[in-house]
Amino acid sequence: MKKVLVTGGLGFIGSHTVVELHNAGFEAIIIDNLSNSSIDVLDGIYRIIGKKPIFENLDLRDKSSVQNFFAKYTDVVGVIHFAASKAVGESVENPLLYYENNINALVYVLQELTKMAEASFIFSSSCTVYGQAEQMPITEDASVQPAMSPYGNTKQIGEEIINDVAKVSSINAILLRYFNPVGAHPSAEIGELPIGVPQNLVPFITQTGIGLREQLSVYGDDYPTPDGTAIRDYIHVVDLAKAHVVAMQRLLNKQNLAKVETFNLGTGKGSSVLEVITAFEKVSGKKLPYKIVGRREGDITSAYANTDKANKVLGWKAQSSLEESLASAWKWEQKIRKN
Ligand code: WQD
Fold first, then answer.
1. Which terminal residue of the chain has fewer beta carbons within 10 Å of its beta carbon, N or C?
2. Residue 247 domain-assigned?
3. 166 is in which domain, residue-wise?
4. Is there a domain that residue 250 lies in?
């Protein structure tokens, strides 16, 4: 079986990607330092796929650990790189934590890949690189705006590093710019595990629905949108995971049209905060307590993907609706609270 390294493989999107790699006949090897995940996720993966992937608990900020890993696993054919800190607000408070973790680790992994005859590299990027794009839906050639946070900047810098390295090395890469990943595996064996008070909308909603949070604060209803609340493109995490497998297969089969390709991963449909609340109430049968408060610093009005390139070139399309995504998130929330 072809071995694929998944860094951050016990994280939210990483763990779902490990499952889909297995389903596609790959063997995933996980690296995770458990800084933003739990070893229990490995058991959840086991309960879904019936085997425990190789797991190496190491920190990619330690260059020698990265070198030792690749010296040990010489038959890795590709890397899907999720490992990174991703909280926008925290990145403003602690930028060096983000530059060290999100940039140094990327550099050390790429240094090892340049030693290989050929290497396939998938990078976890984000629609945050577009800032507030002028035109909706957002295409991959929309201009990259000055980052609104150190987190967003590390994604932009990461993409630039990959482009520079691919030009002069054996690395072929695909940059995947996620919109808003939500939901959980239908088995409810793995899902999102926010630490502390969730920063993101959907986990805060499900925790409010289960009674963990008193009420949701809606960050502003004075945006220039139909109902005044901000619009995002909420994509099911399993659809997102499948896109990573398709992208890896594209590189391994040498179907890429350039050394570095970029794809927006979204549903192509924008949903406002109030629409997400309504959809959650429908799938959960719960009335969600919320209050309208002021806008959150750094938030944009609207972002949803133009999915033409992902559909026609990558050959991937999101399947789940917002309601299906929210239903899976709710099922997961109920499951973890019960345990
Ligand atoms: C969605 C909408 C909020 C919480 C960020 C990163 C992105 C990715 C996903 C990492 C916004 C509103 C939220 C709440 C609210 N992160 N909201 N009340 O900000 O679009 O994207 O997370 O990969 O890179 O930028 O996601 O879920 O925080 O917010 O009203 O309690 O929900 O204002 O309009 P966001 P989000």
1. C
2. yes
3. 3-181+235-267
4. yes
Question: Is 223 designated active site?
Answer: no
- List pocket residues of ligand 1, CB cut-off 6 Å: 86, 88, 126, 128, 180, 199-201, 204, 216-219, 230, 232, 273, 296, 299
The three state secondary structure string of 196-236 is CCCCCHHHHHHHHHCCCCCCEEEECCCCCCCCCCCEECEEE
Q: Is residue 279 part of a domain?
A: no
CATH number of the domain that 54 lies in? 3.40.50.720
Q: pLDDT of 89-112, one tens digit each?
A: 899 999 999 999 999 999 999 999
pLDDT exceeds 90 at position 292: yes
> What is the percent of the chain where pLDDT is above 90?
97
Residue nearest to atom 14 of ligand 1 (CA): 201
Q: Where are the alpha helices (H) located in 40-83, listed in sequence order? A: 40-49, 63-72
| Number of structural domains in the chain | 1
Q: Which atom of ligand 1 is nearest to the CA of 296?
A: 33
Residue nearest to atom 3 of ligand 1 (CA): 219
**Cα–ligand 1 centroid distance for 54 (angstroms):** 33
Decide if 334 contacts 210 (C-beta within 8 A): yes
Q: Ligand 1: which of 17, 126, 130, 201 to mutate, judged by most atoms within 8 Å of the beta carbon? A: 201
Q: Are 309 and 140 in contact (CB under 8 A)?
A: yes
**Positions of E strands within the chain:** 3-7, 27-31, 54-56, 76-81, 119-126, 171-178, 180-182, 216-219, 231-232, 234-236, 260-265, 271-272, 290-293
Query: Which position among 98, 108, 130, 151 bears the catalytic label?
Result: 151
In the predicted structure, residue 211 carries a pLDDT above the cut 90: yes
In a domain, 307, yes or no: no
- Spacing, Cα 270 to ligand 1 middle (Å): 13
